[in-house]
Amino acid sequence: MPKKSQKAPSWRDRVVEFRRIPARELQAHDGNWRHHPQFQQDAMRGVLNEIGIAGALLVYHSPAHDGALVTIDGHLRKALSDDQAWPCLVLDVDDDEAAYILATHDPITALAQADAQALEALLASVQSGEAGVQAMLAQLAEEQGLVPPEPAVAPEGFPSYDEDIPTEYCCPKCGYTWSGKAQ
Questions:
Q1: 53 near 86, Cβ under 8 Å?
Q2: What does the DSSP 8-state code read for residue 178?
Q3: Taking the domains of the chain in order of start, what are their residue ranges?
Q4: 15-110 — its CATH code?
Q5: Do 143 and 170 meet the contact criterion of CB atoms below 8 Å apart?
Q6: pTM, 2 dp
Q7: In this structure, what DSSP letter does residue 164 have?
Q8: What is the pLDDT along the chain (183 residues), one digit of tens a residue?
Q9: Engineering a disulfide at 62: which of 21, 70, 117, 180 sits with its beta carbon 3.0 to 4.6 angstroms away?
């Protein structure tokens, strides 16, 4: 039996404009709680080098900053180049609503769960010549269990007797396995 068509939700559309704005004209949000380590910066720069710009920053005119354009999402991209004119979605929100978006935008994305088979197929189709992107993709594959971990190596001076004995214990810190008594 076909599903009944559902009425589309009547959500407010807060996007009032799309335009390209030089990074130097955008202020970072005072409440930005994300820091961007070098690893992430290298990955973002690598994607921009190979693909280019493929997404818009979220910005708004902040009453608390005398109407200046303030970044809600896209702080890292903004920080990478003062001269770059970034595509921006200008939102019609106030400072409280901007803070709400800042607090929820990335965490909602992070709630998604990975489909390991789909991710494995996707990663097999992606090629990158950028070291930062390669490192990020390798880390993603490892985090999702797509790459077997490197075999543990016994710490220096660890006694070795018969390497063919089935292992019974595993060190939770270094992953080294051994048989015999757990100490």
A1: yes
A2: E
A3: 15-110, 150-183
A4: 3.90.1530.10
A5: no
A6: 0.74
A7: T
A8: 556 667 888 999 999 999 999 999 999 999 999 999 999 999 999 999 999 999 999 999 999 999 999 999 999 999 999 899 999 999 999 999 999 999 999 999 999 999 999 999 999 999 999 999 999 999 999 999 887 666 667 778 777 666 565 666 666 656 676 666 545
A9: 70
What is the chain's alpha carbon radius of gyration, rounded to the nearest angstrom? 24
Beta-carbon count within 10 A of 93 CB: 20
Tokens of 117: 């088979």
Structure tokens belonging to residue 103: 């607090």
Answer yes or no: are the C-beta atoms of 99 and 132 closer than 8 Å.
Answer: no
The C-alpha atoms of residue 105 and residue 73 are separated, in whole angstroms, by: 8
